[in-house]
Amino acid sequence: MAHGRGVNFARNLRSSLAALVANTVVGLAFSILLARGLSEPERGVYAVALTLALFVEFGAQLGQRLSVIYRIGRGGGERSVAVGAALVLSLAALAVVIALSLAFADVLQRRVLAGAGRDILLVALAIGVVEVISGLFEGVARAVDRFALRNRATVASTMLSFVAVALAVGPLGGWALAALWAVCAARAFVGSWLVAASLRETGVRLRGIGAELGPALRFGFPSYLQTLMGKIHERVDVVLLAALGVDAAQIAAYAIAVNVVDRLRVVPDSVGSALLPQLASLPHDETPAFTARIVRMTLFWVGAMALGLALAAPPLLPALFGSGYSASVVPFWILLPATVSLTFRRVLSNYFTASGEPGFNAAVQVVAVIVNIGVNLWAIPRFGIAGAALASLTSYGLEGVLTGIGFWRRSGLRPSEILVPPLAEIADQLRRARRQVLGERSPG
Question: Rounded mean pLDDT of 352-361?
Answer without folding.
Answer: 82
